[in-house]
Amino acid sequence: xxxxxxxxxxxxxxxxxxxxxxxxxxxxxxxxxxxxxxxxxxxxxxxxxxxxxxxxxxxxxxxxxxxxxxxxxxxxxxxxxxxxxxxxxxxxxxxxxxxxxxxxxxxxxxxxxxxxxxxxxxxxxxxxxxxxxxxxxxxxxxxxxxxxxxxxxxxxxxxxxxxxxxxxxxxxxxxxxxxxxxxxxxxxxxxxxxxxxxxxxxxxxxxxxxxxxxxxxxxxxxxxxxxxxxxxxxxxxxxxxxxxxxxxxxxxxx
Length: 254
Prior knowledge:
Blueprint: E1 4-7, H1 10-17, H2 22-25, E2 28-34, E3 37-44, E4 47-51, H3 58-70, E5 75-81, E6 91-101, E7 116-117, H4 121-126, H5 141-144, H6 147-151, E8 155-162, E9 165-175, E10 178-186, H7 192-206, E11 211-218, H8 223-229, E12 233-244
């Protein structure tokens, strides 16, 4: 049985990959299928990713690796369910968590700090230094930079100030009664507890009746401590793997 591949629109790719941020992350999307195994290949120039929410199939993986290279990709990220195994030359990068908080999870203390709107350019100026953990593939800066065009007026960039200085930012999109967190970061010189807690408390204070989802957070990201303290709960776990397609070494986890 051959592997099938067909180009699809971003919205369908996001649904089939179970990845809300996927439309930001690439310029071309393909549905791939082999028997009962199906996934989505996303290609963005030299970067490509294969999302396999239903599990791994060796023939499908070999086929997509070749296709990604054919479409100009030099590096391939593969997203699998937690517990799936890829053989060499792939190596596991790290576990990714999707966090969620609903109104039923209870109130949070009111912070002294309040959310203030900020220009999107502030995120770009601080993105690299404020991320001690390498973001997931679909949350790299090249993806996030597309957010203003993708979400329009539904996109919000807010910051908090402590002693007059901005110490944290949060980027999110409003979708009815749901909030999708695209990115959040704190000034590493201030610390995740001091700056991270207030920004999420302020988010709750502003949107107390909303369901909030923060997808694809690396397990080694210090912000996980804040999600736990703010009574977020993990609703999805996945594994991210990397491979260079032009003879380079396999990327180690950040």
